[in-house]
Amino acid sequence: MLDTRPLLETTDFPRIFRGQLSILQVNLGYLCNLSCVHCHVNAGPKRKELMTRETIDQVLAFIDKQGIKVLDLTGGAPEMNPDFRYLVVEARKRGVEVIDRCNLTILNEPGYEDLAQFLTDQRVIITASLPCYSEQNVEKQRGKGVFAESIAALQKLNALGYGMEGSGLQLNLVYNPGGPFLPPDQETLRADYQRELKQAYDVEFNDLLTITNMPISRFGSMLLSKGQFEGYMRLLKDSFSKENLAGLMCKSLISVDWQGEVYDCDFNQMLKMPLITSDRPITYLSDLLDESLEGGEIVIGEHCYGCTAGRGSSCAGALA
Ligand code: SF4
Ligand code: SF4
User: Fold this and answer.
1) Residue 39 has pLDDT above 80, yes or no
2) For site-directed labelling of 63, which of 83, 115, 180, 283 has its Cα 20 to 30 A away?
3) pTM score of the predicted model
C-alpha cells in the first residue's frame, strides 16, 4: 500500500489548541468483517490487533479520573473485540454516553445475533456507516451483498426501537463520498436519505452525518495510485473555511489506539503522529490519568484541511 504520510507532515495549517476534554474515542482494534475501499484504518478480517482487557481497564480509569462524558468506540468493527461488552457495561454504569461506530453488517454475522438486543438494553447510541441509499454505490465502496445486509440490520434496529420517535434510542447514519470530492450539504442529503430509505425499505433513523474522506491509509493510497492525490489536496485546501476551526473535534476529544497510545484524533492515530505533552515520543493513556490536557497544542498535518473544507467534517458530521 502507498503511504501518504511523508506528503502530509509539513503543513501551513493554522496552529490549534485543545479546549476542555469531554469525549474519549477508543479504537478497539483493526479486526473487521468488511474491507471497505475508503477505510482509513485498513481494517479487515485478517487483522489481529485488538485492545486487551488490561488496556480497557486503563480506559475506564481514565474515564473516572478525567470525568469523560462520551465514549466513542471505533475499530475495525469494535463489537468484534472480545471485551467490547465489558467496556460498554462498565461505561454505562458510570453514566457515560456510549457511541458504537457500527458497520451494520456485524449485526447479522454468526455469533453476533444478540448484539442488537445488547446495544438496546445498554441504550448505546449507534452511528452506522451507510455511504449511500443506493445499492450500487454502497457495494462499490463496501463489497458485494453489503447493502442488503445493512438494510436488514437497520430494519432489525428499527424493530427494537432504534431511530423511532420517542424511544430515546439514537440511530445515526454516516455518509462519506465515494471518491475524491466533498460531501454534499448534510441537511439536504439527510432529507434524501430519509425519503428514499422510508419509501423503499421502511427504514427510519435520527440523523445523518456527512464525513469528508481523509487523504490517508487505504483512501490515500488509492488517490496516489490513480494520480489523484495532488488534485484532492488542492480541493481540500481551496475549500478551507476558517469558521470550521472553532468546532474541530480534536479540541474536545482524544483518540486512543488498541495499544493504549494517545493521539489528538483518529486520523493522527492512523498517521502515527502521537499527541505531544512532553518530550515523550509516545504518550500512553495510563500516563495521562492526572494530567490536564486543556490548552495543549494539537499535532497537525496537511490532512487537517480535510476537517476544515467546505462545511467542515468531524466524527459528528459537518461542522457548519
Ligand atoms: S470502513 Fe469500517 S466497516 Fe469498512 S473495513 Fe473499515 S472499519 Fe470495517
Ligand atoms: S485531522 Fe482534523 S481532528 Fe485531526 S488534528 Fe487535524 S484538524 Fe484536528
Assistant:
1) no
2) 115
3) 0.94
